Automatic annotation (TrEMBL):
The keyword Transferase applies. Substrate binds at residues 194-197. CDD domains: AdoMet_MTases. Keywords: Methyltransferase, S-adenosyl-L-methionine, Transferase. GO terms for molecular function: nucleic acid binding; peptide chain release factor N(5)-glutamine methyltransferase activity. The lineage of its organism: Bacteria, Pseudomonadati, Pseudomonadota, Alphaproteobacteria, Rhodobacterales. This is Release factor glutamine methyltransferase. It catalyses: L-glutaminyl-[peptide chain release factor] + S-adenosyl-L-methionine = N(5)-methyl-L-glutaminyl-[peptide chain release factor] + S-adenosyl-L-homocysteine + H(+). Residues 17-87 form the Release factor glutamine methyltransferase N-terminal domain. Methylates the class 1 translation termination release factors RF1/PrfA and RF2/PrfB on the glutamine residue of the universally conserved GGQ motif. It comes from the Bacteria. The gene is prmC. Its EC number is 2.1.1.297. Belongs to the protein N5-glutamine methyltransferase family. PrmC subfamily.
Length: 296
């Protein structure tokens, strides 16, 4: 058996030959990071860590593994995210299960985590928790804290709960179905959220990979600020004195979201940039020892 291409199929005899074919296929389909994606998919098929792939490149690849790799490459060519093919995504040093029911946790969201950890907290509320990546990361980094994750989607809450169990955080985290504040009670030291912030007019210009993520978690079907208005309107009624709110934003929304917080009496409002210098998180703090019951 010789390496080559026959009717678009991989006819390689080694892992390396199959990997070369897969990389070339992804590159031809104009997939950014074709080599990286192909390596991740091959490691997944072979059930090994990606950093060990080099060790098995000369090895023969079984017909079963070859077929599985072909199928994974075809899914990626169709612009399905690698994380969905793998069923997991790394975030802040941990691995989270992801499905089409939740947003992929993204590296830029780690800016929100870093900002939250600059001050102690014992209770945290994550509005629109999705996979639970933000809430569960904060709880894992602060073992003495407890938190609540809410989401309108039952399917998303199931993913979050599964991640909670995997990470062994069942004693710290709980989850509740809710449409923003509807049905939520309690006071928190910290409120966090990565709400849908993409304006409806911007959706057609986004990458095709986003078609595999829940639209309701991406856009408000309006100007991209609907969720912020709802969150900020009642946030102070759920924060303890000197409690904080941290909101992930789109890169053009820093001023608008800051104004929403200032209008509700939050102090120390500031915008935090990501590693590319783009506005990424807006933070604010309850200013005095007596919270104002907004929206009650």
């Amino acid at each position: 058996m010789t390496s080559g291409e026959t009717s678009g199929a991989i006819t390689a005899v080694t892992v390396q030959q199959a990997l070369v074919f897969g990389t070339r296929t992804l590159a031809t389909a104009e997939i950014d990071g074709a080599g990286r994606d192909a390596r991740l998919l091959m490691a997944h098929v072979l059930e090994i860590a990606s950093d060990r792939l080099t060790l098995v490149l000369p090895d023969a690849i079984s017909p079963e593994a070859q077929a599985a790799f072909e199928a994974a490459i075809a899914r990626r060519v169709a612009r399905e995210p690698v994380s969905h093919i793998l069923g997991r995504r790394a975030f802040y040093g941990r691995v989270f299960q992801v499905t089409r029911d939740v947003l992929d946790p993204r590296p830029e969201t780690e800016i929100l985590i870093q900002e939250a950890l600059t001050r102690p907290f014992t209770s945290v509320l994550d509005l629109g928790t999705g996979s639970g990546a933000i809430l569960l990361t904060l709880l894992a980094e602060n073992p003495l804290s407890k938190g609540l994750g809410s989401d309108l989607s039952e399917a998303a809450l199931a993913v979050a709960q599964a991640n909670c169990v995997t990470l062994g955080l069942g004693k710290q985290a709980r989850f509740q179905q809710a449409n923003w504040w509807n049905g939520l009670n309690g006071d928190f030291d910290l409120i966090v959220s990565n709400p849908p912030y993409i304006a409806a007019a911007e959706m057609p210009d986004l990458s095709p990979e986003l078609a595999y993520e829940p639209r309701m978690a991406l856009t408000d079907e309006a100007d991209g600020l609907t969720a912020y208005r709802a969150i900020v309107a009642e946030a102070r009624a759920h924060l303890v004195p000197r409690g904080r709110i941290l909101l992930e934003i789109g890169p053009t929304q820093g001023a608008a979201v800051s104004d929403l917080l200032l209008a509700q009496g939050f102090k120390a409002v500031r915008v935090v940039a990501d590693l590319d210098g783009r506005d990424r998180v807006v933070s604010g703090q309850v200013p005095n020892p007596h919270r104002r019951n907004v929206g009650k």
